[in-house]
Design a protein that fits this description.
With about 80 residues, the protein is mainly β. It has one domain. About 0% of the residues lie in helices and about 35% in strands. The protein has no helices and four strands. A four-stranded antiparallel sheet has the order 2-1-3-4, with no helix packed on it.
Length: about 80
């Protein structure tokens, strides 16, 4: 038996600023306050995979996101 994954939105540092990141386009985005994110380190953007954006979104873009204190490239869809 598979357990359903809980969909959620969280405020994360994205490209140096705090913004909501959601698991689904249907989730309600929280209002993110202010946080000192710092700037991501200079890095070359990896090649983006060719794929259709998830249902409810129009485009996806690779952005640097600070997760657990480490900047990582993550595909963010809007």
């Amino acid at each position: 038996m598979k357990l359903a994954r809980v969909l959620a939105c969280v405020c994360l540092c994205v490209d140096g600023g705090l913004q909501p990141v959601c698991d689904s386009a249907l989730d309600l985005k929280p209002i993110c306050g202010y946080a000192l994110c710092g700037n991501p380190p200079p890095a070359l953007k990896p090649l983006e995979p060719i794929q259709l954006p998830p249902l409810g979104t129009s485009q996806c873009e690779l952005k640097q996101v600070k997760i657990g204190g480490v900047w990582q490239w993550v595909s963010i869809c809007e």
